[in-house]
Amino acid sequence: MPTKTVYLAQGFERKGKGFRPGTPFPFKTADEARRRAERGRDNFNGRLVGFIALQMDVDEESGDPQGEPVLLAKFGELPREFSDD
Known about the structure:
By secondary structure, the chain is α+β, with helices and mostly antiparallel strands. Helices cover 15% and strands 52% of the residues.
């Protein structure tokens, strides 16, 4: 089963006491995903309160994730699964 590595940047907005993930944006490199997440940090617009950049391997045929994603960068307010605690 061939895999490929994908890089994503994703924003989060507040939803009550929790968070709602935004649409993930795909990028060709880890650096591009990190830069997009950082630009999101600099432009929080009231709706989006945090951004992450991820690297993950996916099955080329099905698109299913393979293994755990790698967190490349994080900025702002984020769900608990992205905290350092």
